[in-house]
User: Fold these one by one.
Assistant:
Number 1:
Amino acid sequence: MEENGKVHSGEPHIGAAALRVERTKPEQLAQVLAVYKRARAFMAEHGNPNQWGNSKPPAAQVELDIEEGNSYVCMAGEEIAAVFYYKEGEDPTYRVIEEGRWISEEPYGVVHRIASAGIVKGAGSFCIRWAFSRCGNLRVDTHRDNTVMQGMLKKNGFSYCGIIHLEDGDERLAFQKAAPTGLVLEGGGMRGIYTAGVLDVFLEHGIAFDGVLGVSAGAIHGCSYVSGQGGRSIRYYQKYCQDKRFMSFSNLLRRGEMVDTQFCYHEIPEKLDPYDFETFAASPTRFYAGCSNLKTGRPEYIRITDMKKQVDAVRASASLPFVSHIVQYEGMELLDGGCTDSIPIRGMLRMGYRKNVVVLTRDASYVKPPQYIGPGHIVYCRYPRFMAALKRRPKTYNETIRLIRRLEQEGKAFVICPSRVMTISRTCRDPEEILRAYELGRGDAEARLAELRKFLEG
């Protein structure tokens, strides 16, 4: 079977119309062939003139792909941003592999004939990540001269496996990805703006993950990362941090919680600093909000697919005990996820994410001390299991840090944390101090980009 071509590197776009993947329609044939024509020219210009030559893939092959329902287009608005072949099931050309072995022999999906129209940066990566999100075990092959494709695959977590041969005998380099990559985001109130700085660097450098699990402030900033809105968190945090509706004790006295939920979870994302709900929904990255279930005393990792409809799950994740109302969500009573699982690495591992990047908001020397839980037995007297979890929190936190360090030594986790002790408070309202914490996050992420890429590509 003729194999894939690739013409554009990078990650899902920022700021353009949301990308979406759909099956190719017969009436789109001419447009698809035009994309492939551009791809042939691009490959020839970039040292890969032989993979597709002047005629591959032939129109008859593309028509057959469309007829069989295996041709897909990545749409940016009404324009085709990329095209590719995707199918789940055995590929005959992958039965024999030389000079290596496949990572997994479990059922898999394949991507062939991928090409970008060149109108949206990262369209190719978006397609690859979409395909992986469908099957969780993806095989791809490419020409030895197609260094652009090879780089994109490695950046998206694929491993080189060996050499396969097409039906005509041509050699191809084989790659596979069988374990999804995860991003774990700790909370910490206003300390979480450090995480926003880290995530903005990730966006700027095209670093993407298959799954993101955020707790509290980590969930808040993780939302804008998945929607591709770099700079959004620091922008509205600085603009509204001194607004009483954003966070204040006057809110607590008047409303019974420090945060004005209508303002923070509706007015800001829907009107004042619009959230890109469409891009979030189209993203192949799975997003989870970590919350605490008061009745069970255990964490809940809630998959968010529609941010507007499920915003209360994110609100629950960031609803601190004692200063927030209990959030009712799908029959559960929820509060801040940090109460039961401050750094949800175990949750990601249980969901199958074997390689995780962890962003902490405490420096490497931090050890959580015993904590006074105040009038908790009175306020939450109906929730003894939740209170037990609160009491265990320092012990659980420190045990989790030890687990993360062990995973880091084993090459299964990569940790980014503040390079110095941060003095910013959980309720900081100083725009300059908030900016300093954000810039620290950016600086720490930029300093470790090369290490991070090596970890993700290994």
Number 2:
Amino acid sequence: MAQPQPAPYQPARTSAQIQARSQARSRRKAVALAFTLSALGALAIAAAGSLLVAPGAAHAQTAAPTTGGGWPTKPVRIVVPFAPGGTTDILARAMAPELSRAFGQQFIVDNRAGAGGNVGAEVVAKSPADGYTLLMGTVGTHGINRALYAKLPYDPIKDFVPITMVAAVPNVMVMNADKAKAQGISNVQDFIRVAKASPGKMNMASSGNGTSIHLAGELFKSMTGTFMLHLPYRGSGPALLDMVAGNADVMFDNLPSSMAQIKAGKLTALAVTSSQRSSALPDVPTVEQAGGPTLKGYEASSWFGLLAPAGTPADIVNRIQQEVAKSLATPAMKERLVAQGAIPGGNTPADFARHIDNEHKKWAQVVKTSGAKVD
């Protein structure tokens, strides 16, 4: 039986047929072109990706990636490693609204006190390096503690990237006003006399082990040959409450947190711990001036600054530094900080990093000389 033959090709004869076949050929070409462009696009993206990833991997230890300018898209947390009421807390709460206005997102203060600032510092060290968790670090967390503690839960250098110093402040040697009057103490020489007459009878409050407040007192003890029982608190706030209540005798507090109680007459300022007098308390001498030859060379000031987890993108770090510096340069902020005895900062991340390194060397020697130990 004969097989049916396919119909022979019939060329289009009518305009409708010609148009239909032309449209079909166009559709086939469009599909082929789209496929080709898609394949080429994928190859181009892959090639571009390899160019971007390779250098980043090679320099992972020296540079963080950029963010593309999208940060911040949610609230940012500033961890304060001490209780509310101290200078660290005061400065963080002064900067938070300034940064909130500058970036259009809330900057929230989160107090995480304990272990001389180590608890809060560890929280930040182990947080994502995305710019949403910052630390208000101190001379304690990044200058003193690595010399004082045998083991820290964080590395002050490797786990953080410095942003900027917010302020430097002198400490101030203060006593409960009623206790000072009752014991006939009106200056540093009086204090040394009374302390030596009854070794161990007086106690010394601090904001925690390893803080500048603690070390300023230890340095004073070692240079004068006096002994006071150390009472470490979880920040200056609770320590000051006991100072005002008369439960603690002396404290080498950061000036800003003690200023209100000094002005109210509840605390007596015997001396400032800086090498020069403070413009906020011009009539109060330095420890060196008030202590005579025994305290020649005494100096123990504090500083506070913002840091972020290591690996935080450089553009975020630089943007924060620039806004902090801009805020600290305004007359209103300058006046506010200077009135509290603070010296505004705002230095670059590189300058702040060098300062931290120098401070570690200085305080390591103070720890060694004073024989300070963690209680």
Number 3:
Amino acid sequence: MPSSHLDLGLDLARDLGPDRDQRIVAVKPITVPAPGRSVALQVKVTAPLSGHDLPVIVFSHGNAWSLDGYEPLVDRWAAAGFVVVQPTHLDSRRNGIGWDDPRFATVWRVRIADLHAVLDGLGDILARAGGLEARVDHERLAVVGHSWGAQTAGAILGACVLDADGVPGEDFSHPAVSAGALIAATGTGDTLTPFAAEHLPFMRPDYSTMTTPTLVVAGGRDRSQLSTRGPEWFTDAYHLSPSPKSLLTIADGEHTLGGLAGEMAAETTDEDPARVALVADAISAYLYDALKLDDTAWAALHDTAATDDGTWSIVGK
């Protein structure tokens, strides 16, 4: 069992997460076979330098980002004992595929296919990342995503996409995945703005089929320009899915929840490293529990939430 470097028994809003002396290593780029993809699928692998039987997180980035983003999250997860694999999706700004590109209409499907390609080829990916395949526990795999990446990861966890008539689409779930976390996940499609309805018709998730244990993370001040609803839109993945599920709500969090994608990123509207640490450490604690590695940190997080001043809260079902 990997050793956890989490310390969640005190105040998670402070920098009391992974052991800052834990060294990590990143290997990039690794090209993953993806037949028919118009641009090569590449990933980055980040891992602790020591440890065995390590759990794996496959992470899906938000719109326009790449394998080079989200270091504040990924590095913290690696320091906590996870191997993290980050693909660059087709919508990355480095690929130059905008709203008017004919390929954009199917990017959501390519994103899901990217995660399947990574999960199916995980052994080879880890072998090319310095022999990591011998150090991971292949039975303990999780997917995590932020924003559009959360909808992508949600599909792997069992959520479907409704068509214009409300009929659920294909089942994109992956049998190897045991748990996940969705950060700022798209809500239902019945309140999309005209722009979103025209350009993002796939943004109609059906969470009733998402049976995999999942932590949903939402910001209390996250107001999307894609929906006429308020911050509660980002809690649909919790409220409309079957148990077991947990919901972490951060009262002052906006869409980037303190700067998940990176320090001083242009998209960040609520720069707060402690908030990023809270998100990262809460996901680590949840996955350690959901993957049946260690429930200590998740229990400590619940205890801390119960005595907190209301800046963040956790509920479950």
Number 4:
Amino acid sequence: MKNNRRNFLKLSGLTGLGVAGAGALKGFAQEPANNLIKHFDRKPPMQRFNMCDYAAPRLDKVRVGIIGLGDRGPGHLEGLVKIEGVEIKALCDVRPEAANSAKKSIDGYGHKPVIYSENSESWKKLCERDDIDVVYICTPWDMHTPMALYAMEHGKHAFVEVPIALTIEDCWKLVETSERTKKYCRMMENACYGSLTTLNMVRMGYFGEIVHGEAGYLHNLVERYFFNKNQYWDMWRLKNNARAVGDLYPTHGLGPVAQIMDINRGNSMDFMVSMSTNDFTLAAKAKELAAKDDFFKPFADLSYRGNMTTTIIRTKKGQTIKLGHDTSSPNIHSDWFKIIGTKGTVFDDPKRISNGGEKWLSEEEAKAIEKKYEPGIIKKMGELAQKAGGHGGVDFLQNWFMVDRLRNGLPLDQDVYDAAAWSVIVPLSEWSVTNHSSPVKIPDFTYGSWITNKPFDISLKEGGNTKVKV
């Protein structure tokens, strides 16, 4: 009992409190802050090779294989066939009908991909081919890391859907393998391409020093996705919501804010806490459906993650980031983010800008300012990307930019350290939620290189010469 009381006092910072105010302050100050933060210390003794700003040998042709053709895979395929220099060499899905449908969708573009659908291990044959440069991985989340590792070990760049990993250990494996093989391991975070003008405004000093960022993924997926047995393979998304608590999908919100705050490139995330509500909808829906359809009976007695998870992150430069994740409440769909600086504020979705006052600028004023600060990539490709489609054009813009960088032998905008740092919020938020929202240290996957790493280029001073067929 005494030990339990001592541990509680220690965690709450009450150890050493005395009657006098000075004694109380002294007792509080003596408690080392790091004692209150959970550390998951596991990393090699030194960095093998810094993949930030690494330029892989240029590729005249970008030969692509795609694994997973259910939801995200066909969208990437549709965009890639419109980009100069891309050759689609292979398509893989455990469902032959999905792979063949994807192949048929690109008839007329001149590509003749080989189909791999024999069994659940067929994706390995795709990775083992010697005529593929890049493997796109668009499968359920738990398959992302093993497939990316296998692809890199077989000499391929791995472009992986979000999140790239579900465990801290897997994040480190991806970092180590990318550094050792010198193959790109890039997470396909498309949300970053919708905030490039805001990023340029920040870099040009419009908002002053950045103080705080807020972002989230609010998307009601209960009816349309989670419990739609014809929407996706093996109900994997619903199973994930029963597998874990915390923020399962942090990267859409975190990615743009992390780039704005120069995370891994002059700044670093330090520690975080997460808190979740109870589940108010998923278990009830599962029971409701199970009463009418035996298919849902295995899901009726499961425990599900809470509706809303809120995560607070503190950076090494003293800024804060607030993330929200809710896919099971009747929210209006929003991938919003908000940036607060010392000279102004910007809110996205819908876009609003303030220049330091207490009111938003008019829509006309905001549009004029955005036009003034458009970076080179948006000036060149913004309208074309919107015509090409895919989440308002951000999917196409992302694929075009990556292909253009590969064909010109230029560094990518996102690297394995970004993929690991943004995805590690998934297991860390789970740990924090299940431990009474205790703070937890965020691993530094750059081994301290964030101090000297430079921000990536969005001006298109180099490259930008890859044509499109829209």
